[in-house]
Amino acid sequence: MTVVPFKMTDYPKARLVNGVGLEHRELVMGVVSTLRYMEKSGTFYTLWDGETVVLIAGWHKAWAGVCEVSFFPTEAFVKSPYTGVKELKKKLTELAKTHWRIQITCRNEMVFTNFATHLGFTREGVLRKYGHDKADYIMMSIVEGL
């Protein structure tokens, strides 16, 4: 497995686990601008297994000490999650050294919230009709000192 800085060209090669990618979310900035941001920010990375994208993940700073993380798991990640989870935990540990709050929003389904809990996130509350499809999401966080 190889971790490399995210490139826009990685995204089309990722077979996303639920088949719903950025192109389905009616992004205000648009897909290309979002991918460009992910690439230029230097805070997103791609985990490869040979020629296969396993995971795209990263974070953006909301303000000093607070960041929001994003994970884009692929079918390859679901088949063999161990290395991907290990890498995510490593990156979250690094972020916790420079941020007092790391947050993520998860679709309100056990598979997603259980996964976030496994990574160390704690449930905070429901974001009603937050999703692009008006689905409820759960705000979760890792907060320093808790």
Blueprint (SSEs and pairs):
Layout: E1 2-5, H1 31-41, E2 44-49, E3 52-63, E4 66-73, H2 75-79, H3 82-96, E5 101-107, H4 110-118, E6 122-127, E7 137-143
Parallel strand pairs: 4-5
Antiparallel strand pairs: 1-2, 2-3, 3-4, 5-7, 6-7
Question: What labels describe this entry?
Answer:
single chain, alpha+beta, 4 helices
Polypeptide structure, described:
A hairpin with a 2-residue loop joins strand 3 and strand 4. The mean pLDDT is 90. 27% of the residues lie in helices and 34% in strands. It is an alpha+beta fold and 146 residues long. The longest helix has 15 residues. It has a single domain, classed as Aminopeptidase. The protein has a seven-stranded mixed β-sheet with strand order 1-2-3-4-5-7-6. It has four helices and seven strands; from the N terminus they run βαβββααβαββ.
| CATH fold-level assignment | Aminopeptidase
Beta-strand residue fraction? 25-35%
CATH class: Alpha Beta
Report how far apart the termini are.
32 Å
What's the CATH H-level homologous superfamily? Gcn5-related N-acetyltransferase (GNAT)
Strand order of the largest sheet: 1-2-3-4-5-7-6
Helix content percent band: 25-40%
Under the CATH scheme, the architecture is 3-Layer(aba) Sandwich
The overall pLDDT average reads 90
Give start-end ranges of low-pLDDT stretches.
none
Got a strand count? Answer: 7
What count of domains describes the coordinates? 1
Q: What radius of gyration results from the CA coordinates?
A: 15 Å
Number of helices: 4
The computed structural class is alpha+beta
The profile of the biggest β sheet is: 7 strands, mixed
